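Translate structure to sequence.
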């Protein structure tokens, strides 16, 4: 340890001149400090390093209230299964000799033998008897080992604030004993057998519950939440048939419903959730979306995902600011989309589940922006529909287009329907992002189609390959410049081209004045 920190003698300040201020802190404060030392490689190493700073800190490492037993952390450093479970047993036994409750207990492991299951049972029950605020148990039973079942004492841990259960059985006395979760704020159930009545009773017994996640659980047909005042976030993810979802939570702000694709959509009663601002709806129907959205008068963020083609998608919401559409197997024709959303700031289509957070977290967008992410979907009809969509007066001022080109030759034949009468739609800015290993004639064809559809005042061209190669502009850069210039009165317009950012992004700006090419 000497190579990590200098040796400090904190035993006698009069001899060393060092004042041990840490030892003057209450134990509860020191424990709180130690809880922030938890990282992926485990908290213990960091705590031991810190313990040289204070004698009291060293003594308290034995009673450190964060018990973190994630098997992958041990197997990554070539620790055997036997050593892992011995460590769990020893550490918990040593901790329980102290007169302090646990702040957090995490057990994430698979069970291959009955002896391993017995160790987990014994250790979890010991910690529950001491009390714990944050409990996270994720256990996968293999071979003929039964699933881990929580002891009934779990229902009596009144200090519990966060509870996450995965792959385990709930206490056998759940529907018999009083549930004393007086402090529970967060509850996650994953791959847990639970019936309708147990869900209703469990939620009703947690009056302070704010975050409820139920994922891939089975055994229930109906999920009912009755008059719950503190619910803020609900995530329902199911892969079995669910008949009905009833939620009465007047302060709910975020709702996620994710059904198994192809399953029948459950009936829903969400009329009491008037304060919802964000909805993520997977496997959603298109025929009753208007009725569905009418439940949420102040909704701001909406993500819709379906495994079929939307038909006549009509959305009306005066409060909606961000809208994302994703289809698993089909693109929605732009001509099928009707939006009556006067305050819409971001419309992303097509998008993917991985892009949700990047859009919803972007609250600084000032002008209405449409974002399209194409992956081998382009043809002439797409750009024609896009132009028609702009003609519907949706109010977009900015367009972001990304194209992932894997088979470049496929797009060289993107042709423009010359006979189409509408002129290019005027936008303040267009951003084009090209993803490919190298430049291709398809990139020129893509830019040509975009600028047939749109007439921007400025344009950002980005690529995953260098746009300036050995001081020479690539073909797509030269083409973009000439095409932008052709859209204007060349005698009175100049194109200012900014210096490339890391060689992979260039800004073009149209300016009134003599035709010049300038760098800024």
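Result:
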């Amino acid at each position: 340890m000497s190579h990590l920190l200098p040796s400090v003698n904190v035993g006698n300040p009069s001899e060393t001149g060092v004042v041990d201020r840490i030892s003057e802190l209450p134990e509860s404060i020191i424990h709180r400090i130690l809880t922030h030392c938890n990282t992926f490689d485990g908290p213990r190493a960091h705590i031991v390093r810190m313990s040289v700073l204070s004698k009291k800190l060293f003594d308290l490492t034995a009673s450190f209230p964060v018990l973190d037993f994630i098997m992958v952390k041990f197997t990554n450093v070539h620790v055997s299964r036997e050593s892992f479970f011995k460590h769990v047993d020893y550490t918990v036994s040593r901790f329980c000799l102290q007169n302090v409750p646990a702040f957090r207990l995490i057990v994430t492991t698979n069970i291959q033998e009955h002896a391993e299951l017995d160790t987990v049972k014994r250790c979890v029950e010991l910690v529950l008897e001491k009390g714990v605020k944050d409990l996270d148990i994720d256990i996968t039973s293999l071979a003929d080992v039964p699933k881990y079942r929580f002891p009934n004492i779990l229902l009596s841990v009144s200090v519990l604030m966060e509870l996450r259960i995965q792959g385990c059985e709930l206490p056998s006395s759940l529907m018999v004993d009083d549930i004393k979760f007086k402090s529970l704020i967060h509850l996650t159930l994953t791959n847990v057998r639970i019936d309708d009545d147990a869900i209703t009773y469990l939620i009703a017994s947690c009056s302070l519950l704010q975050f409820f996640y139920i994922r891939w659980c089975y055994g229930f047909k109906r999920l009912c939440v009755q008059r719950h005042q503190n619910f803020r976030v609900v995530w329902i993810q199911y892969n079995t048939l669910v008949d009905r979802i009833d939620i009465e939570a007047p302060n709910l702000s975020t709702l996620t419903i994710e059904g198994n694709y192809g399953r029948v959509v459950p009936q829903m009663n969400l009329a009491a959730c008037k304060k919802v601002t964000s909805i993520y709806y997977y496997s959603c129907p298109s025929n009753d979306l208007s009725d569905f959205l009418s439940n949420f008068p102040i909704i701001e963020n909406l993500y819709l995902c379906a495994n079929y083609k939307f038909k006549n998608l009509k959305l009306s919401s005066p409060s909606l600011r961000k809208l994302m559409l994703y289809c698993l197997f089909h693109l929605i024709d732009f001509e099928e989309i009707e939006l009556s959303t006067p305050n819409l700031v971001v419309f992303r289509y097509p998008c993917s589940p991985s892009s949700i957070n990047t859009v919803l977290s972007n609250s600084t967008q000032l002008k209405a922006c449409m974002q399209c992410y194409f992956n081998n979907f382009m043809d002439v009809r797409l750009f024609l529909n896009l132009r028609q969509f702009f003609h519907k007066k949706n109010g977009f001022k900015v367009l972001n287009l990304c194209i992932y080109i894997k088979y470049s030759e496929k797009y060289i034949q993107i042709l423009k329907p010359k006979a189409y009468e509408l002129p290019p739609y005027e936008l303040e800015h267009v951003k084009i992002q090209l993803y490919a290993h190298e430049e291709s004639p398809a990139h020129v064809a893509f830019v040509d189609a975009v600028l047939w559809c749109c007439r921007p005042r400025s344009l950002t061209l980005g690529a995953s390959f260098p746009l300036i190669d050995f001081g020479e502009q690539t073909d797509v850069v030269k083409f973009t410049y000439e095409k932008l210039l052709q859209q204007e009165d060349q005698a009175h317009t100049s194109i200012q081209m900014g210096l490339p950012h890391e060689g992979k992004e260039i800004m073009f700006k149209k300016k009134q004045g003599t035709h010049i090419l300038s760098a800024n």
